[in-house]
Design goal:
Layout (H helix, E strand, L loop, with lengths): L1 E5 L4 H12 L3 E6 L8 E4 L17 E4 L11 H24 L6 E7 L27 H19 L6 E7 L1 E3 L6 H10 L12 E2 L1 E3 H13 L5 E5 L5 E2 H12 L9 H11 L4 H4 L7 H5 L9 H15 L2
Parallel strand pairs: 1-2, 1-4, 2-3, 4-5, 5-6, 6-10, 7-9
Antiparallel strand pairs: 8-11
Helix pairs in contact: 1-5, 2-3, 4-6, 6-10
Organism: Terriglobus roseus (strain DSM 18391 / NRRL B-41598 / KBS 63)
Pfam families: DUF1731 (PF08338), Epimerase (PF01370)
Protein name: TIGR01777 family protein
């Protein structure tokens, strides 16, 4: 198969490119700043169809992952960059696919599980989940994130591609042992004695093990019956206090200092980020994946954390 990955030079894109190439697929990564890689890379501006558009012609699948990091303060300039890096690139990919003589059979486009409301009381899936943005008492920035997700998915459906199946990947936090990833940061807190409960601890965290993430992408490419929004997450979201405890146990760490909400707010200012990534309760379930027959290798966080800690240590030598 030929797999084209626009915006695939980051951690998640590299993870997918590595896996697809390992199984013998032809991989092409589109990047604004191409770097030497074991697979083929090509340059694109992420705004308009250019010379890169011919890569879509004859491809079997496209996995579009572009998007400026949300790990920043939501200043007006950053908000503009976050939105346009998602919507303009998605529209450009759609235009290239629509113009292809032999378009790809399937287009997986990144989206976000933060579309769902702040939910502690009940799980949110693709069929009965409630979109967020209007919850009473939550920060305005949370509504901004939901709006970004909605506009992102609207860009995916804006350009007709009748020969190409479309899937919006409503992805939760992808946990891998790679440097500077979410798990690497959390494990670093644990290793330095700071990996206690964050905020109230009752807020849920939706996650997916990196191996299941890759397998889910492969499954969706090969399953012709699935289209539309798909939650990419493990079937067992877990409260923050239990999530952090599992990392401590996997690492053999006895204690971790907790961080209260006000401490997180102050820390977020100094780190130039937002507390939404920690404090919003994401209790999301992968109903579409499971109904389609996908089986998780790591459905429970404690065993996933043990695997990730072991692999992280191996990467450290």
């Amino acid at each position: 198969m030929k797999i084209v990955i626009p915006g695939g030079s980051g951690q998640v894109g590299t993870m997918l490119a590595r896996a697809f190439q390992k199984r013998g697929d032809e991989v092409v990564v589109l990047s604004r700043h191409p770097q030497p890689a074991p697979w083929r890379t090509a340059s694109w501006d992420g705004k308009y169809p250019g010379a890169w558009a011919h890569e879509m012609d004859g491809a079997d699948a496209v996995i579009h992952l572009s998007g400026r990091t949300v790990n920043c303060r939501y200043t007006p300039q950053h908000r503009k960059e976050i939105l346009e890096s998602r919507t303009l690139t998605t529209l450009a990919v759609g235009q290239a696919i629509a113009a292809a003589a032999c378009p790809p059979k399937v287009w997986l486009n990144a989206s976000t599980a933060t579309l769902y409301r702040h939910s502690i009381d009940k799980p949110q899936d693709e069929f009965t989940g409630e979109l967020g943005g209007n919850e009473p008492g939550v920060p305005e920035t949370w509504g901004f994130s939901v709006g970004i997700g909605l506009q992102w998915e609207a860009a995916l459906t804006a350009i007709p591609t009748p020969a190409t199946r479309k899937i919006a990947l409503r992805t939760s936090m992808v946990m891998s042992p790679d440097k500077d990833g979410v798990f690497d940061v959390l494990l670093g807190l644990v290793r330095h004695g700071l990996g206690g409960t964050q905020g109230p601890g009752t807020q849920y965290l939706s996650w997916i093990h990196d191996q299941d993430f890759v397998r889910a992408a492969q499954f969706l490419i090969e399953n012709d019956e699935v289209s539309g929004p798909v939650n990419i997450c493990a079937p067992n979201p877990i409260p923050n206090q239990d999530f952090m405890r599992a990392i401590r146990l996997a690492n053999g760490t006895q204690m971790g200092l907790p961080a209260s909400k006000w401490m997180l707010e102050v820390g977020a200012v100094f780190l130039r980020t937002e507390t939404e990534l920690i404090l919003k309760s994401r209790r999301v379930l992968p109903a579409v994946l499971q109904q389609a027959g996908f089986e998780f290798i790591f459905p429970e966080w404690p065993s996933a954390a043990q695997n990730l800690v072991r692999r992280w240590r191996n990467l450290q030598g």
